[in-house]
User: Fold Methionine aminotransferase from Mucilaginibacter straminoryzae.
Amino acid sequence: MIPVVSKLPKTPTTIFTVMSALAAEVGAINLSQGFPDYDCAPELTELVYKAMKEGHNQYAQMTGLPALREAIAAKANTLYGADYDQNTDVTVTAGGTQALFTAISAVIQPNDEVIIFEPAYDAYAPTVKLMGGVVRAMELTPPDYRIPWDMVKKLVSVKTRMIILNSPHNPTGTILDENDIKELITIVKNRDIIILSDEVYEHLVFDGKQHLSMALYPELRERSFIAASFGKLFHTTGWKIGYCLAPAYLMQEFRKIHQFNVFSVNTPMQVAAAEYLKDESVYLGLADFFQRKRDNFREGLSQTRFELLPCHGSYFQSVSYSNFSDEKDNELAVRIAKEFGVASIPVSAFYNKGTDHHILRFCFAKKQETLDKAVERLMKIG
Assistant:
């Protein structure tokens, strides 16, 4: 064997892969990985078939089809009053994770410091490290997982190049509020700090609350990459289509990387997405759709021994089990999958140090019968 020096020597196989494989192995209901078990709208797949039959089967423009970029820019303007130029500020990507990877790759140099709030989506830190950056992790704690901005101010240094935010948040279901925005604006003012805002769950905000996108605030928009996902929007996570919004000077650097790690994205699906987005109810009705699922799932879980944590957005419900077990969360997650037939994600996997608060995460983007069956099984935990 040829010796290979790993660029990520301490990075294991992602927990999502591990738990989904375990669910398949033992026949458990998979509430671990974040994907729906129901199909997307039939009219959307019909639009894809139509695009294929009409010959839209070759490379799209590197930046994305003009019609789709125009639809994305119009959507951002309608929702956030943000004047993004489809020609210079919008790029279609192969999913939200590719948008995140490309944004980090475009601007992080060796020894640049990046502030990440944990628990965090597990793609952030490895990408920073691949670019030679230094992760400065700020650990948040349950049940509310609020950002301690006084501590963040102490973490900021002349080497701080980027702050990564995620709202609605995976795995905790928290969202940023106006005080968070106020504190963020204060911190980045007069500093060369770029914001990477992971907003893939932007339309999954509950209880009448508003999604506070970086696009809403000119002083943040001018320094922000915003990553978004059609997989979450259309219930098509397997399509791997997303997009990035950024001011032209940042997008110029983004596209330099994008053209060499993806170049272009699935053409017929872009054609379909552009047409489908003409109906604003596609995204304006999404919050109500998922809130019904959240409410029903929470009602069911309230009959189990788990303690429910707040969930204001995303399609994840976190629960504490500290009142009935002192097992490590990864051990309990495996035991529940094997003995009770429900797969979850141990939230310690979202902490670089494996911090264990005895919290599990369940995905409720499932059919009602799937969730009912899962609750029935979870009620048997003694």
About this structure: DSSP finds 15 helices and 13 strands in the chain. The domain at 58-279 is CATH 3.40.640.10 (Aspartate Aminotransferase; domain 2).
